[in-house]
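Supplementary material to the annual report.
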Amino acid sequence: MKLAKYYPLIPVYVIYLALFLIGKSMPGMWQLVAMLAFYCAIGQAFNIFMGMTGYVDFGYVAFLALGTYGMALSISSFYQVEGLGIGIIFIGLVLAVVMASLLATAVGAVALRLRGAYFAIATIGVNEGFRYFIEGAKIWGGSEGIIFSGPLTEAFGREMASSLSTFWADAAVLIIAAAAAFITIHYMRSKIGYALTALREDEDAAKVMGINVTKYKIIAFITSALFAGLIGAMAWALKLTYVFPPEVFDIHYTVECIVIVLLGGAGTLLGPVVGGLIYGLFKYWLTVILPGFQLLIFAPIILIIIVAFPEGVVGVLKRRVKGTALEKYIV
Amino acid sequence: MTLLRLENITKRFGGLVAVDDVSLEIEAGELIGIVGPNGSGKTTLYNVISGVYQPEEGRVIFEGKDITSLPAYRRAPLGIGRTFQIPRPFSSASVRENVAVGAMFGTLAGKVSVDESLKIADHYIELVGLQAHQDKAAGTLTPTEKKLMEIARALAMKPKLLLMDEAMAGMHPRDIDEMVKFLKKVSEEEGIAIVSMVEHIMRAVAGFAQRVIVMHRGAKLVDAPTAEALSDPRVVEVYLGRPSGEVKHASGGEP
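Predicted assembly:
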């Protein structure tokens, strides 16, 4: 019984393992796998907040950005410290988590007292504000950002630095996605999940039932943010070895998160993974067949899917398998 | 000991006085009916007790403790449960999960695990007779089933005081009689004081309440044992108007 609650992780982990094996064994596939892993991971991280609470955070990409800065700062500041070795990566991850969580706490404590659309509006400002703050106050390299490919090479040697960027950073994103899936199912099966479902469906009724809605919203918000920080640290900082404010604070990524979660099925475990795969593959394919036109074609297709399947792919699937043996695996 | 005491509660919305200087007491295990026409302040009174609104004046005392400024979510664990006039299920969650939320965050909050909460939910779902629907999404239930689900959810909170808002409106008279019987039994077995608010179904009040509080224009008009209250000429006047010849103002029309 205790273990049974984690059965829904099986399909998720099978997909991640398959991605890894495909990328490792088929030449030329690693970049595609890395991209899919990234979309699955941000989908899962974003789903912990948007899917479970029903709130949309338009400033979400700021958490990825701060994670990126966390890693960049660690590598560019500590690369000459003797004996740290791989430790600077860990310091980077810790910084990423701490910075993303701090911002989430600050934003959450204020903005999460607002309802629905007001929250969404307030969060748009956070993202843009933070970007202009970094550029205007000229901290962390200001508008020029931080380039740390040199320090990375100096700290680890050419070969190791290259394998960190081209392999380990992507592999780590898969591991982060797997961890996010674990936390998601853990929340779903605990008091937190019940509280979040209740407040998503009817916040006032939830309060009268004894649920401290602000507390649970903040828990989901911080959890979601810290995963975003980790993803930023790996998929953006360590992989690209530079950070450039207009790129990491691009609201486009928040929109991608929303699309992935809605496509796959908000509030489900498997949804963001399926959404990430569909979105990533489709985007990749459109980039190949019609470079430059992908957004133009993508927008109406997404509209149609979202209007036709408001519950998302996994939402529909869940209804289909209800009452069958598959029921306990598709959540 | 007095379970709940309201002392001179006044709640205003702008210029409108929704509840006007109301004081009342409820003893543990009591069965009380609150009646009054639409707009007489019944629901506002419920919202003040459950913490949705803060009153402008007066105090709310629960088990001797002043809870006037306590937020709603901290009142449920003390033992105040309620149902809503228009049921408010957590629609996408199953009936079982809905009821389990009650167990998890009510007076047992922090004392029961998720699995134990689900077991408690099973008990109350059976009690209200919704076993056949327990795995359905609560949003797909019929209105009557939703009301039953809300009652199960509120009972799973193991409250000391249960506030029911028009739980029997729209029900068949036979179902009302059954519901009244059920509520009396639950109150006795679990020692819950139940306050049932109705607009005009006197059948539900007469069979259920030991004491009736009549609200009119935000104020408490009558607070007396059931038979006495329902035959009080002032109550008759609120509902039916004055006998002809005595008309000074129409009493039925509420703002």
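The CA atoms of residues 164 and 196 of chain B lie 5 Å apart.
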